[in-house]
Design brief:
alpha/beta, globular, UDP-n-acetylglucosamine1-carboxyvinyl-transferase, Chain
């Protein structure tokens, strides 16, 4: 049996850190084994410098702008890498300005923030591009003069992440937090393909993570999850169907591995609810369709940035090593890891996994014992 050490959920950790900072609680001690995003959030909240560079951490950038906007008398400038500064932020900026925030965009896309007491009360929010805009406001509500009254001007996406934020704001949590369900999905997919028994240490069905929805796909993909005292054991089972249609609007971080699993399992697969993929660390919609083409699979029914389908029933790996790239995106690295179970590949930028899962490749290349 292969025993896997999953990383702590960065989604929960980043919200928890903000809550600690707002309530004057000491942050957990910095740990070199954390994912890059958790390290970046810790740095954002503990930095004594005016300029803070968050790299590629979109969550940290959005939550950080909100947090420092509500810190009276503090001036900060938040920046990041080129791709980050191109990602959507205006809906959050507009909502914060509606609450009295003083925010100025610099020429390179960085933001200069002059902290002040925000009003609270009525605020409009457009959550059609990211649930993090609403989560950012909810997290800093305790610093506002009055309780928020949110008016939604669009249909939101990734709603389980907003519910996660509310639960963290309203309840007590202690460190260490939950292990990461989105990264457990990689191992579940591996077990489904190889039929290895894999113990996901520390993982629990009692989770506030929306990505635990992958556990409900057991029958359609073909796996079993067995809870135990030390975690959850996964093993592959016969698949229930050769044709699947999944909507990922509430769980976009599961798309890449699901698509890779569908390819390797040689099934007909349709996926929708992909609207947010274009705004991630890379344009994941294009990265996925490009990957399918590279693998010799025709992409069908493309609805730009929303959905596509494919039929991989006749897909076969080629004899040669396939040179591929993660396009600078950790979840595309996980996509290629799954494909690599059947197709010999060489990934040019494997290190991108450190954003959410340091040590992934070292664990991935271990043999069951």
């Amino acid at each position: 049996m292969l025993k896997v050490e999953l990383p702590i959920s960065k989604s929960i950790a980043n919200r928890y850190f903000i809550k600690c900072a707002i309530h004057g609680q000491v942050l957990p001690n910095y740990n070199d084994n954390w994912s890059d995003d958790i390290k970046s959030m810790h740095n954002l909240l503990s930095s004594q410098t005016e300029l803070i560079d968050v790299g590629s951490a979109g969550t940290v950038f959005r939550f950080g702008i909100a947090y420092w906007s509500a810190q009276q008398g503090v001036t900060k400038t938040l920046t990041g890498d080129e791709r980050l500064l191109e990602r959507p932020i205006d809906p959050l900026i507009n909502s914060l300005k509606g609450l009295g925030a003083v925010l100025n965009r610099l020429e390179d896309g960085s933001w200069r923030i002059t902290g002040k007491k925000l009003t609270g009360g009525k605020v409009k929010i457009d959550s059609s591009l990211s649930s993090q805009f609403e989560s950012a406001l909810l997290l800093i509500e305790p610093l506002m003069a009055s309780k928020l009254e949110i008016e939604y001007i669009s249909k939101g996406v990734s709603l389980p992440y907003v519910e996660m934020t509310k639960l963290i704001c309203e309840n007590s949590f202690s460190w260490p937090l939950e292990y990461d369900w989105s990264n457990s999905w990689i191992w579940i997919a591996r077990s489904t393909i190889t039929h290895e028994e894999i113990l996901l240490k520390g993982l629990s069905n009692n989770s506030i993570q929306g990505d635990s929805i992958c556990s409900t796909w057991a029958n359609i993909f073909g796996f079993e999850l067995i809870p135990g005292d030390s975690g959850i054991m996964v093993k592959g089972l016969p698949r229930g169907s050769n044709s699947m249609n999944l909507n990922f609007i509430s769980c976009p971080d599961l798309v890449q591995v699901a698509v890779a699993l569908a390819i390797v399992c040689k099934i007909q697969f349709s996926c929708s609810g992909l609207e947010t993929l274009v705004h991630k660390e890379t344009d994941r919609f294009r990265a996925l369709t490009d990957a399918l083409i590279l693998l010799g699979i025709e992409v069908l029914d493309i609805d730009l940035n929303r959905s596509f389908s494919f039929d991989s029933t006749s897909w076969k790996p080629i004899n040669n090593i396939l040179n591929v790239s993660s396009s600078g995106d950790h979840r595309m690295s996980f996509f290629w890891a799954i494909i690599g179970l059947k197709q010999s590949i060489c990934i040019s930028d494997r290190e991108t996994v450190s954003k959410s899962y340091p040590g992934f490749w070292e664990q991935w290349e271990l043999e069951s014992n």
